[in-house]
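Lecture 7 notes: from sequence to structure.

We start with a single chain of 467 residues. Read the sequence below before looking at the structure.
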Amino acid sequence: MADFKDISPNASAGAKLTNWFENRLPTAFDMYKVHMSEYYAPKNFNFWYIFGSLAMLVLVIQIVTGIFLVMHYKPDAALAFGSVEYIMRDVPWGWLIRYMHSTGASAFFVVVYLHMFRGLLYGSYRKPRELVWLFGCAIFLALMAEAFMGYLLPWGQMSYWGAQVIVNLFAAVPFVGPDLALLIRGDYVVGDATLNRFFSFHVIAVPLVLLGLVVAHLMALHDVGSNNPDGIEIKATKGPTGIPLDGIPFHPYYTVHDIFAVCMFLLVFSAVIFFAPEFGGYFLEYNNFIPADPLKTPLHIAPVWYFTPFYSMLRAITDEMILVLIACIAGGAFLGVTKFKLPVIFKVVVLGAAAVVVAMMLSIDAKFWGVVAMGGAVVILFFLPWLDNCAVKSIRYRPDWHKYLYAVFVVNFVILAYLGTQPPSAIGERVSQVGTLFYFGFFLLMPWWSRMGEAKPVPTRVNFAAH
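Now the structure, written as tokens:
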């Protein structure tokens, strides 16, 4: 009892209740102080810093709506589509819960893409935040797995055939491909076993991993502190009390900031749910309102919009594209051994590795390399902290042409996303091939181009104007 904090008998009932809990659960109050009231964030946060909190909000929406949907959903190939229709038509407010969940899936990727782009703009992946970025990329990967498995559950035409196409891609892996595809499906075709497996992973396994990664992401962030638009470490300039001079408590300043962003987001989110839940067929494809039919293939099979940039890269890898990639690898190896002063043994290793890769590309089907490109487009993000060699973090102080390069990267990504929704065409194939080369070139050549140009002077204190 000696460690208990005393409180005045004249204190309010709320203060007494808080004191009662604090004496019996001090760890929770310590966490609140560390991560909220005594966590000092840079005072120059801007619009781009709302998307992390919005991602947390959408995660909660998805979990809560998912719980209600599971109460009525039946993971059975003969009953799944009917159970979704039952939810939509007969369960009180079931249509709202289902539309919240389907719209939430797309909203999740919108805010996560914007959140990651902010990290790219302001160098939030640079030292000392490499782990924050790695956990964030792992969250993105888990989110993609969660969305793909959830996409199968309505058991409509696009769910069925989309899963059929994607799972069959694993069969292209040399030696183990057919067995791997069989393991994922649980049968020789996408069927009841596949539906049960995906349901189990979607409802239990992946959400647990996702929640663990979110906690790790937040812990890593709060241990090293938040980045800011100037890319300046606020912990480097502290006052006599040890508090950063350019920092303000996260609560109440940024909690109010985030609450306003949440209100604006919910207005847009609600407008989509009530007025355009299908969003022109991008959020919910019209073919998915038709029961799955293994004997009738849709005219055009494409994934949901948030997978389409990577799907475009998959389709871009053709036999012709393989020859272009071989030329790029040969050219890169030649430049590496002629332009850089490397020991002879390193030059031999580079040339040998290039020869092995070229031999593999010529002997293995292009379909496999398409799968590699699709997966590599995500995996390469994990290496970003070690690819960027610019002298400064933030785009504000990088050479001006960097801004245009980032803008082209965004436009290229959007074009790839659009092409992934369209039926294959000769022009679309060429554009997606150029876009794929630019996407990978942006990252693989970053150690070189990020050093080019003269960076602007970085101030010692953050730029902030009160408003």
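Residues 59 and 108 are 7 Å apart (CA to CA). Keep this in mind for problem set 3.
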